[in-house]
Amino acid sequence: MKNLNYMSIAEDAMSKIKKGAFLTVKAADALNTMTIGWATFGVIWQKPIMMVAVRPTRHTFGIMEKALDFTVTIPTGDMSKAIAFCGSKSGRDVDKFKMCNLETADGQKVTSPIIKVPGIHFECKRVYKSAMDTAHLDKNYDKALYPQKDYHTLYFGEIIACYET
């Protein structure tokens, strides 16, 4: 394992997230992972922050609402089949971990595990969330990205660990 400075790898990480990464969250006995293709990095509130977006229709949403943290795993190798599966199937209906042969490993500083694959791992403590207010959303984005009007909730996590395995 090698600790990383998240800002020095942000551009590379974002180009890989666009192709798919795993957002994993655990609260009590509930655990799920889902595919994300959107995220942001930055400094907000004088802290290193990663923001992820989850639609309320997703199984992960209910767990995110109860969780204090989350992880993002950006695989190094080709995991396109698992990424496609985890982005198209619900954890309500199938065990994604079993179906994709995904193992988890304990996070270093958070309750939510990482996906145990070679890659970059972000451990984030949730510090803020906000449901989207469509009154403030560009109408072209609304039309193009939300035809079902299933707007995201934005979760801001302080990056408390960033490393490569």
Judging from the principal axes of the Cα atoms, what is the shape? globular
Taking the alpha carbons of the first and last residues, their distance comes to: 5 Å
Class by SSE composition: alpha+beta
- Provide the residue-averaged pLDDT: 96
CATH class: Mainly Beta
Number of domains: 1
Low-confidence stretches: none
CA-based gyration radius: 15 Å
Could you tell me the CATH topology label.
Answer: Pnp Oxidase, Chain A
Residue share in helix: 10-25%
The CATH homology group name: Electron Transport, Fmn-binding Protein, Chain A
User: Strand content of the residues, in percent?
Assistant: 35-45%
Number of helices: 5
Tell me the series of helices and strands, N- to C-terminal.
Answer: EHEEEEHEHHEEEHE
CATH architecture: Roll
Question: Biggest sheet, in brief?
Answer: 8 strands, antiparallel
How many β-strands, per DSSP? 10
